[in-house]
Specification:
The complex is a heterodimer of chains A (239) and B (412). By secondary structure, chain A is α/β, with parallel strands linked by helices. Chain A has seven helices and ten strands. Chain A has two domains: 140 residues, Nucleotidyltransferase, domain 5 (2-Layer Sandwich); 86 residues, YqgF/RNase H-like domain (Nucleotidyltransferase, domain 5). Helix content of chain A is 28%, strand content 20%. In chain A, a hairpin with a 2-residue loop joins strand 2 and strand 3. Chain A starts with a strand and ends in a 36-residue tail after the last helix. In chain B, strand 6, helix 3 and strand 7 form a beta-alpha-beta unit. In chain B, helix 6 crosses helix 8. The longest helix of chain B is centred in the C-terminal third of the chain and has 30 residues. The chains are: A alpha/beta (239), B alpha/beta (412).
Chain lengths: 239, 412
């Protein structure tokens, strides 16, 4: 099976093509701007290197974040356009899942996995997984100072996993270092979401898959005019 | 145009060269409605529509156009014989109304959520597959960048996957060229581009060839409508609501300024008019406006805008009337062109100067995909296309040589 995967949610964008589970070609782009210009040329380069025509792709896959809204929309609009134009299935994979599954199994063995993604705000997003990478709950927003308690509650939920000896992975770890100081035997793996992992996850998804939408995890920043309910958010309105 | 271009098909093979909106679908809510029964629309599972695909399909270029630069998500298919094969518009009005304006992030989210479904819908309605399409056009700017990105990336992806040319269309040019789709207007023509984001007078010398004669130095005219409507308690969007409120009102009752009238040049200004409306409202009894007062104030406001636009167009006509080739048409485009009072007033100006006044049908004045598809088609048949590395442009003046108007920012 040929899978073309793309991700532009984080500071590093990537495009990867796998053939029967083996990485055939990949390209990375490590700037937070310019994805709209570079993404299609990167896809063309990956296809060319793999010697694969776009019509030969069996499935498309895309990272649905969370992450930068602009990058997310660039990748997902592109992926949805590719799926529409080729009639091939498209599968969305969350950044948490991609980070957790991107870890070397030998390093994460018997450990709870917590994927941590920079929200570009003070508080990162995270999701816990047990040692078999089954999610421990829905993604949440970490709040400064509350992290150890939050992590323990989150990670010791229904599966009874233990944060002690957990492994944290993702680009949001730096923001948490102070909160993590007292937790013993913690493994930290700063890492970016990798399109090759997204392709691997998409290969085992059943079809039909739901149409991917961004995992925004944050409502739009906007203020309702005075006199309207829910006027506690800040933002700008153009008329 | 005098020469027969290389893409022309023999006239015997041409389908009816008429402007024929086969499918104009428009919705006022977050859910779009399919074309009404009897309109010729069909689902993907039935036969070809009787009035649908031209018999000359293999000879006639068909372009897919996407529009996502503000608060309409739109997809359309237009062919070289100036026929709109499908035109699907999803208005996000209901999503933005509580905020009294377009919220960029809400708009961007909605464009991404709906665009691919609307493309599928447009293609089904037109009875067209990707193999029948000769190019993909999308608004590449100017506009709200989060939305522009969605349309541009979707179009690039389709074009790449189907080995088709991609055209990044200037949204303002799409408005400008609409009369060539609807009325086959020849270059050159004088254009008043009047919308919520722009107010400019331009000489349109050819595809991609614009000379700006004047621009607003502060608010856009559609913006003035929105702000005046808000002051009158009419809600959002102000243009159509104010026009409706003005029906039956006395346009002479309130004395409002005619900004820039009689001044040299072709620039516009609307902020003083907005302030004058605020003062008139303050002079009226407190609380909600009496319906009579509101109708009279709305009508007086419209009359003031009409007089101002008429004066500026008059100046522009004087400035270009000696040019060769002669300028025969005064064209209005953009959302404000849907206003009937303004259309009537500008018709009189054109007639006074022996010119023809041309405005697209109101449904093609507001944002839509057909105008983008048409502008893309005009560029494609001149051999123009964009690279897949095209960067969406929040600002994209039609006449890059024109001096920026400081108070107007990107509107100029």
């Amino acid at each position: 099976m040929k899978i073309l995967a793309l991700d532009a949610a984080g500071a590093v964008s990537s495009v990867a093509l796998t053939i029967d589970g083996r990485l055939a070609a990949r390209r990375d782009y490590d700037r937070a701007r310019g994805q709209a210009e570079i993404l299609i040329p990167l896809i063309e380069a990956v296809l060319a290197e793999a010697g694969c025509a776009i019509d030969a792709i069996d499935r498309f896959a895309v990272g649905i974040g969370p992450g930068g809204f602009t990058g997310l929309r660039i990748a997902i609009a592109t992926a949805r356009g590719l799926a529409l134009a080729t009639g091939r299935p498209l599968i969305g994979i969350s950044g948490f899942e991609a980070l957790a599954h991107g870890l070397d199994p030998a390093i994460r063995r018997n450990r709870t996995v917590v994927a941590v993604i920079d929200s570009q705000r003070a508080d990162p997003y995270l999701q816990g997984f047990d040692a078999d990478l089954v999610p421990l709950g829905a993604p949440i927003t970490a709040t400064a100072g509350s992290l150890p308690a939050l992590l323990i509650r989150h990670a010791t939920g229904p599966a009874g996993a233990d944060l002690v000896g957990a492994i944290l992975v993702g680009d949001g770890i730096d923001r948490l270092r102070a909160d993590l100081a007292g937790i013993p035997d913690l493994v930290l793996r700063p890492a970016a979401v990798d399109a090759a992992v997204i392709a691997g996850r998409a290969e085992c998804r059943p079809l039909p898959a739901p149409l991917p939408s961004p995992l925004y995890l944050r409502p739009p920043d906007v203020t309702l005019p005075a006199g309207q309910p829910d006027a506690d958010r800040s933002g700008q309105v153009v008329s | 145009m005098t020469e027969v271009p290389h893409w022309a098909v023999p006239s015997s093979r041409r389908a009816r060269p008429v402007f024929d909106i086969l499918f104009l679908v428009r919705s006022r809510s977050s859910d779009y409605i399919s074309a009404p029964e009897g309109s010729g629309a069909r689902g993907p599972d039935t036969g070809m529509p009787e009035t649908g695909m031209p018999e000359t399909e293999s000879l006639s270029m068909i372009v897919l156009g996407l529009e996502t630069s503000c608060d309409e998500t739109a997809a359309a298919l237009v062919d070289e014989q100036r026929r709109i094969l499908a035109n699907v518009v999803l208005s996000q009005l209901a999503d933005h109304r509580p905020y009294g304006g377009v919220v960029p992030e809400i708009a961007a989210r909605a464009h991404l959520a709906h665009l691919d479904r609307l493309i599928r819908e447009a293609m089904d309605q037109a009875g067209v597959g990707f193999d029948d399409i000769d190019g993909v056009a999308a608004t590449g700017g100017p506009g709200l960048i989060g939305g522009v990105i969605v349309g541009v990336m979707t179009a690039k992806a389709i074009a790449m996957a189907r080995h088709l040319p991609f055209v990044a269309v200037n949204h303002l040019e799409a408005h400008a060229l609409t009369v060539r789709l609807t009325d086959d207007i020849a270059f050159p023509f004088l254009l008043l581009l009047a919308s919520g984001g722009h107010c400019q007078l331009l000489m349109v010398d050819g595809v991609g060839q614009y000379r700006r004669l004047g621009t607003t130095i502060d608010d856009a005219v559609g913006e003035a409508f929105d702000k005046a409507a808000k002051l009158m308690g009419l809600g959002y969007p102000g243009g159509p609501l104010l026009e409706r409120a003005a029906a039956g009102g006395d346009p002479t009752r309130f004395d409002l300024p005619r900004p820039m009238k009689g001044r040299p040049g072709c620039d516009f200004s609307f902020s003083g008019l907005k302030t004058a409306v605020r003062h008139r409202v303050a002079d009226l009894p407190e609380g909600a406006l009496h319906p009579r007062d509101r109708a009279d104030l709305a009508a007086s406001f419209q009359a003031a805008v009409a007089d101002t636009l008429a004066d500026r167009c008059h100046r522009a006509i004087l400035a270009v009337q000696a040019e060769s080739p002669p300028v025969r048409n005064l064209v209005i485009a953009g959302g404000v062109a849907a206003n009937h009072t303004l259309r009537d007033r500008l018709t009189r100006v054109a007639v006074e100067h022996g010119m023809e006044f041309v405005a697209p049908p109101p449904a093609l004045c507001t944002d839509n995909g057909a105008m983008v598809a048409w502008a893309g088609l005009e560029h494609l048949r001149l051999g123009h296309q964009a690279g897949f590395d095209f960067a969406p442009r929040p600002r994209w003046p039609l006449d890059p040589a024109a001096a920026p108007a400081r108070g107007a920012g990107v509107k100029a």
